[in-house]
């Protein structure tokens, strides 16, 4: 079974008559009837509307011929000529509508291609912006990593300097203590030497070697003996 008609013949003819009255009797193309109906097959509308116009013209011609009492042969000739002209007019209207549709589709295809190019260019710019942002992010992360490394190294150097300063202070303290102890030892050695000199017997008239033993003791203390 074929696809049922979307609009009946009467609906097509009524739409054509309404447009004809609105246009003051001007010719109504099938495409305009299709627009008024909101759909339908243009060729079918052209056939139905053309057949209606043809029959109406034939009836009008018959009525006029009857009034004028033209010969039958003349009336038939006029009817045939009118039918031929109406048929060619209907076909011409259909061809014009089809050509207009093709032109519209061509313009739409051109506009669509232009839109696709614009979208592709926009996508390329967006991708480039994303790439630049990624590069900037990587550079920032590398800089932050380098800064963190430098900060850690500087902190380690500060810790080493603090340890070295502490060690130097400890050594200085040890040296100070050693000097104090050395001085005490020297003083004790001097007292011991003096006491020893007093206790050592000597011949009458022998000079006392003052500080001789003390010098030796100090030298020994300095040398670590």
UniProtKB/TrEMBL annotation:
Residues 98-195 form a coiled coil. Keywords: Coiled coil. Residues 9-136 form the KfrA N-terminal DNA-binding domain. It comes from the Bacteria. This is KfrA N-terminal DNA-binding domain-containing protein. It comes from Aliidongia dinghuensis. The lineage of its organism: Bacteria, Pseudomonadati, Pseudomonadota, Alphaproteobacteria, Rhodospirillales.
């Amino acid at each position: 079974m074929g696809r049922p008609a979307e609009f009946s013949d009467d609906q097509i003819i009524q739409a054509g008559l309404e447009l004809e009255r609105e246009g003051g009797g001007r010719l109504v193309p099938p495409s305009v009837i299709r627009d008024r109906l909101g759909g339908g097959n243009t060729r079918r509308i052209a056939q139905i509307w053309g057949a209606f116009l043809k029959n109406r013209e034939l009836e009008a011609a018959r009525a006029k011929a009857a009034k004028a009492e033209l010969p039958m042969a003349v009336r038939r000739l006029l009817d045939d000529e009118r039918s031929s002209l109406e048929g060619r007019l209907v076909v011409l209207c259909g061809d014009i509508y089809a050509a207009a549709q093709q032109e519209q589709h061509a313009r739409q295809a051109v506009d669509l291609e232009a839109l696709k190019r614009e979208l592709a260019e926009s996508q390329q710019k967006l991708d480039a912006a994303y790439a630049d942002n990624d590069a900037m992010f990587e550079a920032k992360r590398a800089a932050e990593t380098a800064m963190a490394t430098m900060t850690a190294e500087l902190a380690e150097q500060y810790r080493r300097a603090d340890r070295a300063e502490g060690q130097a202070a400890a050594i200085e303290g040890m040296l100070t203590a050693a000097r104090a102890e050395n001085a005490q030892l020297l003083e004790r050695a001097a007292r011991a030497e003096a006491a020893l000199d007093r206790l050592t017997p000597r011949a009458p008239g022998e000079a006392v070697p003052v500080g001789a033993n003390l010098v030796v003791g100090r030298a020994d203390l300095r040398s670590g003996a």
